[in-house]
Amino acid sequence: MTGRVLVNVVDSAEASGRALRFAIDQASGRGLGLHIIHVIDESIVKSRKTELLQAATQRGEQVLAEATATARTAAPTLEVTSSIEQGDPMRVFTELSNDYELLVVGSDWQQHGSPSRRAVEALRIAAASDSPVAVIPDMDLTGRSGIVVGVDGSENSAHALQFAAAEAARTGQPLIAVHAWTLPVVPGAEFIDSASFYDDLSRDAADTLENALEEVRAEYPKLTVQPVCFDGDATLALATEAERGTLVVVGSHGRSGVARLMLGSVSHGLLARLAAPTVIVR
Questions:
Q1: Which strand (E) or helix (H) includes residue 218?
Q2: First-to-last C-alpha distance (Å) of the chain
Q3: Which stretches does DSSP call E strand in 125-172?
Q4: pLDDT in tens, 184-193
Q5: How many whole angstroms from its chain centre is CA 49?
Q6: Which of 36, 153, 164, 199 shows a CA-CA span of 20 to 30 A to 133?
Q7: Model pTM?
Q8: Which of 90, 106, 137 is the last residue of a domain?
Q9: CATH at residue 42
């Protein structure tokens, strides 16, 4: 890690957009540097049309200049660098991901629209990156509060919990820790005291969540923590809580090879229907 946040700006609108502002806040708030990139699509490069490439490069330089000015105005002491990259955005981000503590990408997903290229690219980048990836929709968060995090007792969710707790403490927001569980299919269930069985599972779920939160409570004693145990689907639980939060954080399974191009069902579900800015932590 080089102690920097990486953000991609596509056009002039993004040079002052929510993804860039999120990246600026993360970099300045966490004492990191900020690197801004603009990616020239590989189709332009492969066209071998010099004038087209020159025009795309000039446009990219303008976009980067506007984004850099935005960053320096918002955070005068922030170390800001920029570069123009060429190729497929997912490949570019994947190759760069090891060198940054956080990657930030914008998404133009709309609740009632069909999936766009940018929304799909954001999902692919989150799946392939080695570093945490923040996917930022163009969404008004006025009136919202809370950092939502998924907790399931795994190592990956522990990393997500640490990220979320640090962000909640930094921003002075409550930490909303969500643990979802469901009743298993049990052969012979008709012979079981269903009420007692449900109560046992409910207590086990609450214990799992509280055990996971012990370290966070000790590290951040002043942090407001809101545990949420949800009887049902984890994606639905997190999406529901995310509608009142400013950020949702989940862990990824961290597979290798071809399997890495697929996120877990929860991560994929949240990115496919963004309810809030979402961070995928490995």
A1: helix 194-219
A2: 14
A3: 133-137, 147-150
A4: 555 555 545 5
A5: 37
A6: 153
A7: 0.88
A8: 137
A9: 3.40.50.620
What pLDDT score does 116 carry?
57
Residue 25's pLDDT is: 97
Percent of residues, the chain, with pLDDT higher than 90: 60
Q: At what angle do helices 50-74 and 18-29 cross, to 10 degrees?
A: 50
**Pair (60, 42) in one structural domain:** yes
The tens digit of pLDDT for each residue in 252-279 reads 865 544 344 446 789 888 998 899 999 9
- Which residues form the domain of 42? 4-137
Q: How far apart are CA 108 and CA 212, in angstroms?
A: 34
Q: What is the CA radius of gyration of the chain?
A: 21
What pLDDT score does 108 carry? 73
Dmax (CA) for the chain in angstroms is 77
CA 161, 162, 168, 171 dihedral sign is negative
Residue 33 and residue 79 in contact, taking contact as beta carbons nearer than 8 Å:
yes
Closest CA to 102 of 166, 151, 175: 166
Q: Which of 95, 114, 137 is the last residue of a domain?
A: 137
Alpha-carbon distance of 41 to 11, in angstroms, equals 13
Going by C-alpha positions, the residue among 173, 125, 114 that lies closest to residue 149 is 173
Tokens of 243: 């509608």
Residue keyed to tokens 């002039």: 12
- Domain assignment of residue 237, yes or no: yes
The number of domains in the chain is 2
Question: Tokens in use for 39?
Answer: 């990616």
Is the domain of 228 the same as that of 255?
Answer: yes
Q: Which amino acid is at 163?
A: F
